[in-house]
Amino acid sequence: xxxxxxxxxxxxxxxxxxxxxxxxxxxxxxxxxxxxxxxxxxxxxxxxxxxxxxxxxxxxxxxxxxxxxxxxxxxxxxxxxxxxxxxxxxxxxxxxxxxxxxxxxxxxxxxxxxxxxxxxxxxxxxxxxxxxxxxxxxxxxxxxxxxxxxxxxxxxxxxxxxxxxxxxxxxxxxxxxxxxxxxxxxxxxxxxxxxxxxxxxxxxxxxxxxxxxxxxxxxxxxxxxxxxxxxxxxxxxxxxxxxxxxxxxxxxxxxxxxxxxxxxxxxxxxxxxxxxxxxxxxxxxxxxxxxxxxxxxxxxxxxxxxxxxxxxxxxxxxxxxxxxxxxxxxxxxxxxxxxxxxxxxxxxxxxxxxxxxxxxxxxxxxxxxxxxxxx
Length: 375
Fold this sequence. Notes:
Elements: E1 2-6, H1 18-31, E2 37-43, E3 64-67, H2 71-81, E4 96-99, E5 112-115, H3 132-142, H4 145-151, E6 154-157, H5 160-170, E7 177-179, H6 186-191, E8 207-211, H7 220-232, E9 238-242, H8 247-253, E10 259-263, H9 270-275, E11 279-282, H10 291-299, E12 303-306, H11 311-315, E13 320-322, H12 327-339, H13 341-355, H14 360-374
Parallel strand pairs: 1-2, 1-4, 2-3, 4-5, 5-6, 6-7, 8-9, 8-11, 9-10, 11-12, 12-13
């Protein structure tokens, strides 16, 4: 099977978000499959002087094919006008044009499969749904997402939640929306066997780790409320935040002596940072999947997640699902886990077993099976 994989290279640069991880791991695994001939497809603007992608891109050694026009303007005309047709830039005999990310690409010489990780743009009852930024986001996505759902032969997504929202909000055909999920890297499982005394620590225990940054979408208001309550309870627990930071929350966090902001953490450091935590606190208000919850389970710490969107589905009965607005209850759970090793161990064992089901190889199996089925 001959596949051209369209990507935005910058989204794959390390360290990257969940969508970037999905792109990297899916395509690296596909490239190793004997039954698949894979080429990357992207704008020539991303090629460096060495005729390769940036050193931060794990995909830089894969075969590639480019088109000459800038990525942003070209993709904008694809989505608004359905033009230009990209047939002439694709190889002869191609079986699929596949995008492991959200887009709309006009081609006629082969079927197209795209991945829509979530449809947050079309949700009307989120805390930020009425902001002009979200309304503009919804308008832009509204110009092409329905067309992608209609025209593409296959639409991949990462959770049953996201699939159902595509059906409910956008009238997507459930028969051609395929859930492939996400995986967890082996490095997270490997660090679980390390003794805590042997970890390379960038912060002293005891601490709770927040992955995803301090942002409104990620539940920043609720995280700071937890920090405030921990201080009132005179708890020694600190909150360490890894990920992107919104400026207003960076300023607000200065009022809390028990909050440490790390910013983006490298893929090499994240497993150990997770392993050293007493628990993961993931109070995100909207996720198409929520990889950090599984990564926490893989390293052997309890995962406390919000009861929003896909998160209850992803953690199942191996995680602790909470209402992010119930600060006192959350603090009680966090302190209990930190003070009760046997309870933490019970959730750690349950979590590792649950996380072991989520491998990138299984995700790729689902992708290839669907492409073979719908060819």
